């Protein structure tokens, strides 16, 4: 499973890249607004750090405007993936952009039927939101597992990005159900390293080494 970082924070992206942990980045308007920086400059900086797909979202809602905006975003850098919401206009724009060789990540996806329609429109990436589904009492990861099955059944080119990841458990389950990608917030990615026995083991090894100093 590829791991993308779900953030617009350049510092966190640099740190995670240095860990060798990430294959791409997803941003959204909320994450971009949180940084309070110039959108284009920020995306270009991210593209220089990460050698992989970097999703930048359109804010238009009509297909023709999404296409225009998407073309503009894609022209910023070869790594930019145009992020488009899962609406009829969004999928119309997806079909046009993909037809012109511009890769699209369809976002705000909450059902398997939406996944099927995104795949048929030719989306390179499809982002089901597990956390937000769990929030309303649905089983987000079950929906992801079913989506992965649909993509495999019909050999669609689309890759499933598990989005709205809220826990290390989500990250693990995404890999277990065979998702192509999980986009993970920095905090969760950092937690994925942790195990108490790792810390305890280091402590013990160092203590033993100190005790044997001079003899080895
Ligand atoms: C995905 O591309 C979105 O940026 C993100 O995963 C949304 O997560 P949230 O539900 O925690 O806002």
From TrEMBL:
A Pfam family per the record: TAL_FSA
Domain of life of the organism encoding this protein: Bacteria
Gene Ontology MF: a single term: transaldolase activity
Subcellular localization: Cytoplasm
Example GO BP: pentose-phosphate shunt
Xref: HAMAP family: Transaldolase_3b
UniProt function note: Transaldolase is important for the balance of metabolites in the pentose-phosphate pathway.
Protein name from the UniProt record: Probable transaldolase
Organism: Candidatus Magasanikbacteria bacterium RIFOXYD2_FULL_41_14
